[in-house]
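Example 4.3 (complexes with small molecules)
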Amino acid sequence: MKCRICRKKAAVKLPSHNTAFCKEDYLWWFQKNFRRTVKRFRMFKAGDRVLVGVSGGKDSLALWRLLVEIDLEADGLYIAQGIGHDELPYSDLGEDACREMAGKLGRPLKVVRVLAETGASVPELEGILRRKICSSCGLTKRYLMNREALEGGYDVLATGHNLDDEIAMLFANVLTWDLQRLAHQSPVSPQRGPKLIKKVKPLCHFSEREVLAYTMLSGIRTMREDCPHARGATSIKHKELFSRLERDSPGSKRRFYKEFLRNREIFEQAKPPAELAYCHRCAMPTTNEVCSYCRLLHRVAASKEEVHDGPPKPRKIEPEPASPAPSGLCG
Ligand code: SF4
Ligand SMILES: [Zn+2]
Ligand SMILES: [Zn+2]
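Answer. The structure with zinc ion bound is encoded below.
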């Protein structure tokens, strides 16, 4: 197959766009579409300070570099979850890749450790809270990213969710007809009140394969390992399902997402955002008296006391939140 632009031998085939590109023209196509998405959804304004949630994986590192290339003051934030073991030190590998990128871009990287913040690593939280690990991982990441962005005086928080992440999230929400979550799923979540920062997902129109091709062709070194807890996750099963559909009918993912965006106002009107309150303990936004993160801290502290006071007392198990959303920062 030949490159659509220069007719040289193609390096990347894009069946969903019914086209192919050589290396140089693929990089040009990717950057052009990235800028188009950023502009179309008015993700940034001149002078914005941006905090990028990075994991060491291809999506977030590609995003960080692309944002710096369009002259934004973009700094990195790595949330160290304490995942992994001697043979696969997953979190350490992610941190190394982020530090390397920070050095190349000449931008600061802040590292926040879940263990130091909560008293337990993400795998330990699973045992303490008796909730699926991805649920605790997502909760701590969301809270800490928002807090760090606010405390650092940033205007926008950017994450590397790609098209496959968005489709998996959308599909999970459609399966349960969760109107509240459907109303909130968007490439841009505006700032709500003084304590909930604006969030953007500038890679939402690129598939995982397209981002991978971009990182490989532009020589970005990323962590290749998957999180050991990703296996069996519902979001991964949904991604596999859509990949099969995409193979049989190229362009299905893009059409599903595009049509959702075209119609998402329907969900917004049906479920306008709930009134935000502020947590009695940490003063961060919540819809309850005490936010989920502070409840998590309380459970961790209680579990430590139980260890010192003898055998554990029976505990009420909190119901699992519906379809924990894929974080998009898993690798
Ligand atoms: S799969 Fe992703 S969300 Fe789940 S534990 Fe691993 S990094 Fe966290
Ligand atoms: Zn070409
Ligand atoms: Zn709180």
